[in-house]
Amino acid sequence: MRRPTLEAVAARAGVSRATVSRVVNGSASVNPEIRAAVLRAVDELGYVPNSAARSLVTQRTDAVGLVVSEPPSRVFSDDPFFSVVVRAVSQELESADKQVVLMLASSPAGQARVERYVAGGHVDGVILLSLHGSDPLPAALARTGLPVVSHGRPASTDRLPYGDCDNVGGARAAVRHLLERGRRRVATIAGPPDMTAGTDRLAGYREVLSAADRRSLAALGDFTRESGAAAMRRLLEDDPDLDAVFAATDLMAIGALQTLRRTGRRVPDDVAVVGFDDIEAARFTDPPLTTVRQPIAEVARAIVRMLLAQDPAHRQEPVILPTELVVRESS
Amino acid sequence: MRRPTLEAVAARAGVSRATVSRVVNGSASVNPEIRAAVLRAVDELGYVPNSAARSLVTQRTDAVGLVVSEPPSRVFSDDPFFSVVVRAVSQELESADKQVVLMLASSPAGQARVERYVAGGHVDGVILLSLHGSDPLPAALARTGLPVVSHGRPASTDRLPYGDCDNVGGARAAVRHLLERGRRRVATIAGPPDMTAGTDRLAGYREVLSAADRRSLAALGDFTRESGAAAMRRLLEDDPDLDAVFAATDLMAIGALQTLRRTGRRVPDDVAVVGFDDIEAARFTDPPLTTVRQPIAEVARAIVRMLLAQDPAHRQEPVILPTELVVRESS
DNA sequence: CTGAAAGCGCTTACAG
DNA sequence: CTGAAAGCGCTTACAG
């Protein structure tokens, strides 16, 4: 059951391979009758161009890699972040007639596989997602000479084009809001220290507090709900009188709400809570969550466009999209 | 920044392209000194074989497609099913030195893209996951002549090799258990009617009840927690006196627990609940969930082996793995 | 053990 | 507008 080749189509239609190629690739200059005959032969034979042969001559694959530096259990989890990015990236890429190849690379072995895959010419470009500080991929992929962009500011100083939201600004807005509402002891549940989304939001928090001459109180989480619940417990041990907490993600804020409820605190009466992301679930928590809305999908679409437009001639400036504070009942 | 070719490596090492190819592909019969010289050249140049060129001649890609017939929001959700399958399939495939290409295809457009991708020769075989009754992919992919297997029994009658757990038997065990505990009015929350995991579990439920001369009471869900909560509400409206429910997935059982709690029912005192899957969360519900353990990862590994071993000479028998009832406090 | 040569299935200047 | 021909970067019988 070997698949038919250009040659077979050409023979059937009684034309040369060059002509079949032109028809298949939509070249304008083909006699309408000949085109019709070729299309008929394509149809009858069920011809689909062999991508390997095409790539070999065009030096393109029309595929783009979306590489996520997280393990499956994190990517396929209740965190809607990945779903939103994958969906937005896919739509944008498909409308440009590119195939998306999703790869997870959270271990050195996985990273090596991705590097070989990319170096082997399987894709025309790469989108990096959820980069951690120590990730060797940006440097490794840069060596392939292919265009690479990152969703989220990379921790390393490589000048990798990227898109992100204004993490520092969003965190500032959240903390200012809490201070304006009269909160005096504002803690934070920070994200992983090896990710800029974690460190930038922590920086924004610290900045506003120190400008207001207040002390910081931080516990670390890993962006998951469970880690948020645990961090909240530690914060309450450190300072049982805290009256507000800013969590670096909604999921961690939801975990914090759980802990607060279990320790008998009322929200927002005793402790105000603000999250970050504005995931769908933020509207359905009890009470509904005040949060910093982050345009994840817009950033995704922007970096796809950066990737497709990449012109080695001039360096690409990062795209930073604004966030927006959404005030609900938890603060 | 064009990547180096075999030619360049050969020139640098002072040998023919054939020899470089042999070294790169690990052929035994190469003089150790020459091999060393070639490897040095490969290293110095950072040579990685061009996959398109290699595929063109070998007619292999060493890649396998994992095609999931669900939208991103479902695949990237709190349902651990996909994470478990992706992880198991990846491990098994990687240990056979194959690349996994994950593709979602939940719309006609997506299915068409997958079909073209596979027909274009990008993969050596395909694993189908979460097939729905009307899915055109099995038939379309069969036409490519490539090996195809399914995780889960396909609804259509195509003789597609597949692996699954014993859905009917698992459901039977769950319902028998409820009857043995003295439950008299056993309802069920069934899965989607266009998926065999839904219909087979419903069939097992019905079988046991009618053998015991009891009436069935079913409400449909779509495997998600939300749908389980809603289905439970409908069941209670239909029969406020039911004293047990078998849900076709743990997530739906968890949704049912919510509804039961909200309507003031005690579990298991008033209503016993049994799920299906034994996901991690089943141990942490309140009360811990009795459920039918399903070997999702084992099935995944089995079908990968079926795919890799596929010999067109003889039809492959399905692999059906047993389930196991895990009794906890909800029943 | 090694090399010269054919060929995988396409695209694309180049002629006509 | 169409075709003959070169060539993309590999692998693999076939000689030697």
Task: Please provide a brief summary of the model.
2 copies of one chain form a homodimer. With 331 residues, chain A is α/β, with parallel strands linked by helices. Chain A contains 13 helices and 12 strands.
Explain the layout of strands and helices.
Two copies of one chain form a homodimer.
Chain A: H1 6-13, H2 17-24, H3 32-45, H4 51-58, E1 63-68, H5 72-75, H6 80-94, E2 99-104, H7 108-119, E3 125-129, H8 137-142, E4 148-151, E5 162-165, H9 167-180, E6 186-190, H10 196-211, E7 218-220, H11 225-238, E8 244-247, H12 250-262, E9 272-277, E10 290-293, H13 296-309, E11 319-321, E12 324-326
Parallel strand pairs in A: 1-2, 1-3, 3-4, 4-5, 5-11, 6-7, 6-8, 8-9, 9-10
Antiparallel strand pairs in A: 10-12
Helix pairs in contact in A: 1-2, 1-3, 6-13, 9-10, 11-12
The first copy, chain A, binds a DNA duplex (16 and 16 nucleotides) through helix 2 and helix 4.
Keywords (chains A, B): DNA-binding, Transcription, Transcription regulation
Protein name (chains A, B): DNA-binding LacI/PurR family transcriptional regulator
Domain HTH lacI-type (chains A, B): 4-58
State the secondary-structure class of chain A: alpha/beta
CATH architecture of the largest domain in chain A: 3-Layer(aba) Sandwich
Return the string of H and E elements of chain A. HHHHEHHEHEHEEHEHEHEHEEHEE
Share of residues in helices of chain A: 40-55%
Number of helices of chain A: 13
Approximate strand percentage of chain A: 15-25%
Could you give a short account of the major beta sheet of chain A? 6 strands, parallel
Number-wise, the strands of chain A total: 12
In the CATH hierarchy, what is the class of the largest domain in chain A?
Alpha Beta
Low-confidence regions of chain A: none
Overall shape of chain A: elongated
Largest interface: A-B, 43 and 42 residues
Placed side by side, the strands forming the largest sheet of chain A appear as 2-1-3-4-5-11
Pfam families (chains A, B): LacI (PF00356), Peripla_BP_3 (PF13377)
Protein name (chains A, B): DNA-binding LacI/PurR family transcriptional regulator
Keywords (chains A, B): DNA-binding, Transcription, Transcription regulation
Domain HTH cro/C1-type (chains A, B): 5-33
